Amino acid sequence: MFLKELRKGGRVLKIKKRKVLPILGFSLLGLASGLFSWYEFLGGREIVNYKEVVVLKEDVTQGTDITNNSWTTLMVDKNTLIKNPILDPRKIIGKQAKHYIPAKSQLTPEYFAKEGLVLKAGQYVAQIPIEWTLSSPDSIRRGDNIIIYSAFTDKTSLEPKTQNILQANSKSQPNNPIPNPVGLKSLINSKVAYVKDSSNREVINVSSGDRLDGSAPLKSIEIITTPEDFKIIENEVKQGAKLVIMYD
What we know:
Blueprint: H1 2-41, H2 44-49, E1 50-56, E2 71-77, E3 95-97, E4 112-114, E5 124-129, E6 133-135, E7 145-151, H3 158-167, E8 184-196, E9 220-225, H4 227-238, E10 242-247
Parallel strand pairs: 6-10
Antiparallel strand pairs: 1-2, 3-4, 5-9, 7-8, 7-10, 8-9
């Protein structure tokens, strides 16, 4: 009796195998067909072999501002990707091109600088020695918009004028400067290219977002300016004035 049941069970198992194997074969064939269609016709090839990168719609020249209308995306073969390509347009919007960049070419952060830090025709980087200054915030950093004033420093008038200077708002807007305290003369508006320490290294924030926690004491400020504007500063210093630097 047991043997009969065993033989019967074996026949049932063989019958089930005969039914399952064709179904399994057709399923695998359908899956393979679906994968082929996805790869060839539904974008699978691009997903597997390509990467979407941010590119510029048109050629740009040095100093061009990058706006939300400047960029588009392009699928690039993963084997031809450059090092550290731009994948997120927010990393370049609001910045400026450091040099000529052709349209539809891959981008990297090194191609761009903060707005206003790219030298345009007639502009240069000039150093303001600390010896020229009477007052400058230690929290000044690269990219800040600054106003440069001159101030008399004779002993008979230095103390009251210095009090006015130090009490003045060091974050006044360049386009809406504060009323001149006694003894201050507005010279130029500019932008900071670098702030450096005594070892000629850039002073940066040690803590993220904390300007009061600088990497070293300030030794010199380098600004983006023109020869004409820098001559204005030099003439004031030659006449015995000291500079007061404020930022917004």
